[in-house]
Amino acid sequence: NAGVTQTPKFQVLKTGQSMTLQCAQDMNHEYMSWYRQDPGMGLRLIHYSVGAGITDQGEVPNGYNVSRSTTEDFPLRLLSAAPSQTSVYFCASSRGGAGSSSPLHFGNGTRLTVT
Amino acid sequence: GEDVEQSLFLSVREGDSSVINCTYTDSSSTYLYWYKQEPGAGLQLLTYIFSNMDMKQDQRLTVLLNKKDKHLSLRIADTQTGDSAIYFCAERAGSARQLTFGSGTQLTVLP
Q1: Which of A97, B16, B39, B48 could form a Cys-Cys staple with B33, CB 3.0–4.6 A?
Q2: Percentage of chain A surpassing pLDDT 70?
Q3: Nearest CB to B103: which of A4, A33, A42?
Q4: Closest Cα to residue A105, out of A115, A88, A91, A85?
Q5: How many CB atoms lie within 10 A of CB A100?
Q6: Torsion (CA) A92, A23, A21, B48 in degrees, nearest 10
Q7: Confidence band (pLDDT; 50, 70, 90) for A97?
Q8: Cα separation, A3 vs A77, whole angstroms
Q9: What is the pLDDT of residues B70-94, one digit of tens each?
Q10: CA atoms B34, B36, B42, B44: torsion sign
Q11: Which residues 3-22 on chain A approach chain B with CB closer than 8 angstroms?
Q12: What is the dihedral of CA B74, B17, B86, B101, to 10 degrees?
């Protein structure tokens, strides 16, 4: 049981380049989300999805796009990378409806550097 | 909006108890969580507490919730060097799916 799988683990981009961070889960979880982690700022929610075909913005969505064509996959796209997007990105998923105790299951993260 | 605050650093001696504190602002919080992050890894759920509970104990971990003061704490008994990590407090408000995280507390266990 792989859980939440993120690829790549590390990535270096030049300013203006685009790329997609991949996230896949094999737990049939309805809810998936992307966070970025920056020193002293904890985790901030970028985008989330409550099911296939449904996405919504989190706290810091600018510069990022997402789509949810299947239950398993939730890729995060950087359209034109900026140095401010240098961060560690985490994908997380959970099952269950609103108000349930379902905890988030996290991937191991993608460390992105934009030069 | 919701806000969750934690102190950034805590150092303890091996064998002592550690207490990590967290405050939150949203009075509609339903579940509060503690996650542990080891270097280079994702976050792992340690424990959680429902908002109608005052305390939850799980082996060396004790969670205390003071809903009136919106204060959550995590006590680790007999702290070991393997407990050195970043600990995140998180809350789920009302019917929301998403969690709001604190900035994390770096726990360092000294031999």
Answers
A1: B48
A2: 95
A3: A42
A4: A91
A5: 13
A6: 10
A7: low
A8: 21
A9: 999 999 999 999 999 999 999 987 7
A10: negative
A11: 4
A12: 10
pLDDT tens-digit readout, A11-64: 999 999 999 999 999 999 999 999 999 987 889 999 999 999 999 999 999 999
Partner B contacted by A98 (CB < 8 A): yes
Q: Per 3-state DSSP, what percentage of chain A is helix, strand, and coil (rounded to 5)?
A: 5, 50, 45
DSSP A100: S
| Residue of chain A whose Cα is closest to the Cα of B34 | A103
Q: Which residues of A touch B88 (CB under 8 A)?
A: 42-43
Decide if A61 touches B, using CB distance below 8 A.
Answer: no
CA distance B40 to chain A (A): 7
